[in-house]
Amino acid sequence: MRRTFLGLPEVPERARVAFIPAPYDATTSFRPGTRFGPRALLEVSPYLEFFEEETGEKPQETLGFLTLEEPELPVKPEKALSFLEAQVENLLSSGKLPILLGGEHTVTLAALRALRKLRGPFRLLYLDAHLDLRDTYQETRWSHACVLRRALELGFEPLVVGARVFRRKRPSFSRKGIYR
Ligand SMILES: [Mn+2]
Questions:
Q1: CA gap 120, 157 in Å, rounded
Q2: What CATH number corresponds to the domain at position 17?
Q3: Number of domains in the chain
């Protein structure tokens, strides 16, 4: 069944905001289930208020939304990312604001790659309980735990907010006793 954001009929040509369901769930390490994320978000979206009190507008009318079909994503990260990257790129090229609905954190890289191609790297506001800076995790470079490392490699400059876990391979103290 095709689900739309807010459960409303959509006019694709007029929409300025587009939702991309990205039900990727290949490297989850705590508890799988992120593949159900996009569906769950779209299912509850009709219960949002349709009126935006700050602007006095109904965004579904002034902006217009488009919800892409939920894809069957390839399991291989490279393939899944390429697929989503192409979707983001197409939407940006047609002047729409793409919003990825994950899915595990790895899907962020698809958006970053497309944005980098079209706009170059930029400052990134990164909201996460973890730093996601590992080079590899559970034998893959495409784990959710490596996302920010890959983003740095693409040239993005992140501002991380909310991180509460910092772990080092070998904790060490300098001579001055400063934890490094
Ligand atoms: Mn993360």
A1: 11
A2: 3.40.800.10
A3: 1
Locus of tokens 């958006």: 111
Domain assignment of residue 102, given as a range: 5-120
Residues with CB under 5 A from ligand 1 (ion): 105, 128, 132
Q: In this predicted model, what pLDDT tens digit does every residue of 161-176 receive, in sequence order? A: 999 977 666 655 555 5
State the average pLDDT over residues 94-116.
96
Give me ligand 1 centre to Cα 131, in Å. Answer: 7
pTM metric for this prediction: 0.87
Rounded to whole angstroms, how far apart are CA atoms 158 and 73?
A: 27
Rounded CA separation 36/38 (Å): 6
The SS3 call for residue 162 is: coil
